[in-house]
Write a structure and sequence with these properties.
The chain has 138 residues and is mainly alpha-helical. The protein has one domain (13-132). 71% of the residues lie in helices and 6% in strands. It has five helices and two strands. Strands 1-2 form a two-stranded antiparallel sheet. Helix 2 packs antiparallel against helix 3 (54-77) and helix 4 (80-103) packs antiparallel against helix 5. The two termini are 23 Å apart.
């Protein structure tokens, strides 16, 4: 059973293929290292702009791993639930990128936070607007 990669790639617009590739990288390379190999004392994980450390970061990293794996699977198959998961997660990232400079970096500026928030809001908005691409039932 050979996979026709050209047909698989054609299922999505280029920006969704980029997110798919990123999700595959996070699922198979980064998250396993982060959750399984990174020492607990060095572990950090960010949700909604707040950085968690130690055990809380390991738990957050495991949740991130599940989210990335589910998103990779859903984007590969273009399932209807992947639209909602991707939209919600991309929105969370945009919020986090806005809040990060304000909450974590003592010298954070509203301008820097706004630029980061808008830059990451672009894929979030694209996800929300792409519902018709995700036609398969969940």
């Amino acid at each position: 059973m050979a996979i026709d990669l050209k047909a698989q790639w054609a299922k999505r617009p280029w920006w969704l293929n980029v997110i798919l590739l990123f999700s595959l990288y996070m699922t198979f390379i980064y998250s396993p290292f982060d959750v399984l190999l990174k020492p607990l004392a060095e572990d950090e994980d960010v949700w909604f702009g707040y950085m968690f450390h130690g055990t809380a970061a390991k738990v957050g990293g495991a949740v991130h791993w599940v989210v990335y794996a589910a998103l990779a699977w859903g984007l590969w198959n273009m399932t209807s639930w992947a639209w909602l998961l991707g939209s919600l997660y991309a929105t969370q990232v945009a919020i986090a990128m806005f809040l990060w400079p304000l909450l974590q970096l003592n010298s954070g500026s509203w301008l820097g936070a706004s630029i980061a928030g808008v830059a990451f809001a672009i894929p979030a908005i694209a996800f929300w607007r792409s519902r018709t691409l995700f036609s398969q039932p969940s």
